[in-house]
Amino acid sequence: MTADPQIPLLSVRDLKVHFPIHRGVLQRQVGTVRAVDGVSFDLGRNETLGLVGESGCGKSTTGLALTGLVPPTEGTVMFDGKRVGSESGVDLQTYRRRMQIVFQDPYSSLNPRQRVSDILRVPLDIHGIGTRAERPQMVLDMMERVGLRPDQARNYPHQFSGGQRQRIGIARALMLNPDVIVCDEPVSALDVSVQAQILNLLRDLQAELGVAFLFISHDLGVVEHIARKVAVMYLGKIVEMADRRTLFANPVHPYTERLLGSMPSLDPRKRHSFEVASDDIPSATSIPSGCAFRTRCPLATAVCAKEVPPATERAPGHVVACHNR
């Protein structure tokens, strides 16, 4: 693996994931769900990129497409400077070993009929890591690393709490020593106190192992705590991307302003500082022409209905897709 810091570990360009809609006896295609409609970003080594947006914006589908769980319709994915899936690039088996995922629901993502020791050993068996005699100890070592007791290895998922089950999911993702982990809403199903424990665990593991995270969440407070860069997604597109401090202190896109304005705050001076956008969210089957946010945007003009706003770098590292900002 190259150590050139100038080459992003993960580089995504114009990623699209479209799902056809079939109806009738003959199952003719009558429409398309454009879940992801041209997403581009870079993720560096030992970096955390937060991907945020409302439910249905396509952020989870983006993560699934990057891990190979959903086939992309278009776009290119470069891993360590090489194109994924090409003959001269990164083969899919190697890519899947180096790119893992932690799912949102820590219970449904684990096989209820397998003991924890079996769940964590399966990735080692599939990729042939370690010998048959070494793998049980590798499982126990990983359990200790994520804060689980070795004597719990024979337990089933239902015998653990929600936070412990998510630790099992994190341990499973780490078994192959990946370079990138997609965290798909990993703390949204947990209590607040447990959320803090899991977030601190992820930060400690990143410092120890140097793994990069694509952290998908609708909770801006969580993203502000853990991410270094933040990308804001709306109806399949990234509308703004910047480092964490810049985006939270100086949002530019009207959607980002209103998204941040919806965050609860204990400071009375910060309450309702932005006008909340309309609840009338367009469907991904009929995305408005031009700028997808124009039907909810107070700044919309005629050009917004005609042209898709290009992603423009307004400042170093601060990219915004808006005609009027």
Describe the 3D structure.
- With 325 residues, the chain is of the alpha/beta class.
- The strands form two sheets. The protein has an eight-stranded mixed beta sheet, with helices on both faces.
- Strand 4 and strand 5 form a beta hairpin.
- The longest helix has 18 residues.
Write the layout of secondary structure elements.
Elements: E1 10-23, E2 28-43, E3 48-52, H1 59-66, E4 74-79, E5 82-83, H2 92-98, E6 99-102, H3 116-127, H4 135-145, H5 162-174, E7 180-184, H6 192-209, E8 212-217, H7 220-226, E9 229-234, E10 237-243, H8 244-249, H9 254-261, H10 302-306, E11 312-315, E12 318-320
Parallel strand pairs: 3-8, 3-9, 6-7, 7-8
Antiparallel strand pairs: 1-2, 1-4, 4-5, 9-10, 10-12, 11-12
Helix pairs in contact: 3-4
Major beta sheet, specifics? 8 strands, mixed
| CA(first)-CA(last) distance | 40 Å
Structural class based on helices, strands and sheet pairing: alpha/beta
Biggest sheet, spatial arrangement of strands: 6-7-8-3-9-10-12-11
Query: If you compute it from the alpha carbons, what radius of gyration comes out, rounded to the nearest whole angstrom?
Result: 21 Å
Please give a handful of descriptors for the protein shown.
single chain; 325 residues; alpha/beta; 8-stranded mixed beta sheet; 4-stranded antiparallel beta sheet; 10 helices; 12 strands; 29% helix; globular
